[in-house]
Design a protein that fits this description.
385 residues, TIM Barrel, 8-stranded parallel beta sheet, GH, glycosidase, Glycoside hydrolase family 5 domain-containing protein
Length: 385
């Protein structure tokens, strides 16, 4: 072979190798900020269709409902939302990777129709520790989020023998959509050290194991070379001093391409949290906020988010089987004989009317998007479980 051609091939190999390595590493600050500069101001909701008690019902073949997703994402679009945060579940991939991929593709097409780009959550440490496929129990009367499930469940989380299955899920689902512009990004792990749903005697082992798996989960996702950024939202503790951060928080902040956080506090606290994260010099998105009874509202937090160019994704869109319009204290005192004074989460009633007209008007005003139309049809589409 011509020596010049050999040199060209060698140089191309080096360049290809460097590009591949760059894709498998954390984004630089410059790359992250360049990406964010190309995005509109990101405003949306954590989305579970009102007929679903959890992410399994949302995506299982027997209960996946394109019509209700279309209808409710239309409501989000009508008030100027352009993103939603959506939870996936590892058992869906193991059970039927092809079918799950097809249903997720359908969902992404519906979202794209409404000019909405989802942030997809891979793992979640909150609530039911023993998730199972198939029919889910009905909502517990009067209780906030009574059917939510972890991913992975406790048994699979603590079992090192199950690591290959978790890796296959992450690499498989991220790889399938790695270059899909309909996806905003990947939220690798929701509140990884959350103790909700766990027995107190299991917490230490759980957090230790999460801290082992979390960097691996980021590495698995990066090995699929996604064009979208990775993140994991910090949610508790002191973020202003690395010496005071938990091990989990350190990993989240060190691995995330873009920074995300949760805050359900008063506006002063919301703004303070943003300021704690600004020294990282990366884009910031609040991926959970808006709990009226706790002091977190659209009125208080959303104008602050806009002022700092921080993305804002509230919890809940349409009141339904998650029952997250009920307060957290319903875990101790179910609201079975009386309704709460104010809704905790959610934006719309099931008939498509806003819980508070002022809120949806404010979202439209601040985003400069949406329409005054978008109310639901009189009949609710789709089946429920």
């Amino acid at each position: 072979m011509n020596p010049s051609r050999l040199l060209v091939i060698a140089l191309m190999s080096v360049v290809t190798g460097l590009a591949s390595q760059a894709q498998s590493e954390r984004w630089t600050e410059s790359k992250a900020n360049d990406w964010y500069a190309k995005q509109p101001w990101l405003v949306g909701a954590n989305f579970v269709p009102s007929n679903a008690i959890n992410e399994l019902v949302m995506f299982q073949a027997a209960t996946f409902d394109p019509a209700i997703n279309d209808h409710e994402l239309g409501l989000a679009e009508s008030i100027g939302m352009n993103t939603v945060r959506v939870f996936l579940q590892d058992q869906l991939w193991e059970q039927d990777s092809k079918g799950f991929q097809q249903r997720l593709d359908t969902f992404l097409s519906i979202a794209a129709k409404h000019h909405i780009r989802p942030l997809l959550v891979l793992f979640d440490s909150c609530w039911e520790t023993d998730p199972h496929l198939g029919p889910q129990h009905p909502p517990i009367p009067g209780v906030h989020n009574s059917g939510w499930v972890q991913s992975p469940g406790k048994e699979r989380l603590l079992s090192k023998a199950d690591e290959p299955k978790l890796k296959a899920y992450v690499v498989g689902v991220v790889g399938a959509f790695a270059n899909d512009n309909r996806i905003l990004g990947w939220d690798v792990w929701n509140e990884p050290d959350n103790q909700g749903g766990d027995k107190s005697e299991d917490v230490t082992a759980k957090v230790k194991r999460v801290n082992e798996l979390l960097p691996q989960a980021f590495a698995w996702a990066r090995s699929a070379k996604p064009s979208q950024p990775l993140t994991s939202g910090v949610w508790v503790g002191n973020w202003s001093d690395p010496a005071k951060e938990s091990e989990t928080t350190k990993i989240q902040l060190a691995e995330s391409d873009i920074i995300s956080f949760h805050n359900y506090g008063w506006p002063e606290e919301f703004e303070a949290r943003i300021k704690e994260l600004q020294p990282l010099h990366r884009p910031i998105i609040c991926t959970e906020y808006m709990a009226r009874g706790a002091g977190s509202t659209f009125d208080g937090s959303l104008p602050i988010a806009k002022r700092y160019n921080v993305g804002a994704i509230n919890w809940g869109l349409v009141a339904g089987k998650t029952q997250t319009y009920l307060p957290w204290d319903s875990w101790q005192r179910p609201y079975v004989t009386a309704q709460p004074t104010v809704w905790f989460h959610e934006v719309f009633r099931q008939d498509g009317t806003p819980y508070r007209q002022h809120e949806v008007d404010l979202v439209r005003e601040l985003t400069g998007r949406g329409t005054m139309a978008g109310s639901a049809p009189s009949s609710q589409p789709g089946a429920s479980q």
